[in-house]
Write a structure and sequence with these properties.
It is built from no helices and 13 strands. With 122 residues, it is mainly β. Strand 1 and strand 2 form a beta hairpin. The radius of gyration is 17 Å and the shape is elongated. About 14% of the residues have low confidence.
Length: 122
């Protein structure tokens, strides 16, 4: 059994991989658990929707704690546009690219579901 630490989109994960006798990885996916991290804010990469290339949907159910920008504001890729609270953690929902915010579909205090449209950047 081998242990690995990987960082994906700024989040650190621990992974254990067990190899078969022939040295190949098993058919089932390895167990992955989130490594302990200081603080309680996690950046969540934006999930572009099927709408436009800059449309962003909620990656998880939760409550909108804060909307950091207004329609018409210029944002950079990776900039936190919305703060979403899910399971007592604050998650920054970031812009997928540089551009202008053309639509914000949520407001502070609103509850959102997985896949619900949040905002669009063009």
């Amino acid at each position: 059994m081998s242990k690995y630490k990987i960082t994906l989109n700024g989040k650190e994960y621990e992974m254990e991989v067990e190899l078969n006798n022939d040295g190949s990885a098993p058919a089932a996916a390895p167990a992955v658990k989130e490594a302990p991290k200081a603080g309680n804010t996690a950046a969540v990469p934006a999930a572009p929707s099927k709408g436009g290339a800059g449309s962003v949907t909620s990656p998880m159910p939760g409550t909108i704690l804060k909307v950091n920008v207004s329609e018409g504001d210029v944002v950079k890729a990776g900039q936190a546009v919305v703060v979403l609270e899910a399971m007592k953690m604050e998650n920054d929902i970031t812009s997928p690219r540089d551009g202008k915010v053309v639509k914000i579909a949520v407001s502070q205090g609103q509850t959102v579901a997985v896949g619900e449209f949040l905002f669009e950047v063009e």
